[in-house]
Amino acid sequence: MSRDPAPQCEATPGCITCGDVGVAMRVVRVSADASALCADAAAATEDVACDLVWPVAPGDRVLVHAGVAIGRLEEEPA
Question: Which residue would you say has higher pLDDT here, 16 or 28?
C-alpha cells in the first residue's frame, strides 16, 4: 500500500468544464436575434449570444465565455 499523499487540486483560471476563460469584449454591431458582433482588445471579432445581458448597444463592454456574453463590464478607467 502506498503512503504517498493524495494528489492536490491545482487552481487554474478558467471554466472547470472546458478550461476557457472569460474575455472582455466590446459590442461592435447588434443583431435583432439577441446576438452581437464583438471585438476583443486585439480587434479579433466574434459573433456572441447576448441573451443573458440583453439589451446591448454598440460600445457596451461584455464578458464573453464560449461565445456567450455572461455579464456586463463597467467602462474602463481613463
Answer: 28
Copy the grid coordinates of residue 31.
443583431
**Lowest mean pLDDT segment, chosen from 12-16, 40-44, 55-59:** 12-16
Domain ranges within the chain, ordered by starting residue: 23-73
Torsion 17-41-51-60 (CA) sign:
positive
Cα–Cα nearest to 24, from 55, 58, 70, 57: 70
Furthest CA-CA distance within the chain: 63
Class of domain 23-73: mainly beta
Average pLDDT over residues 3-27: 71
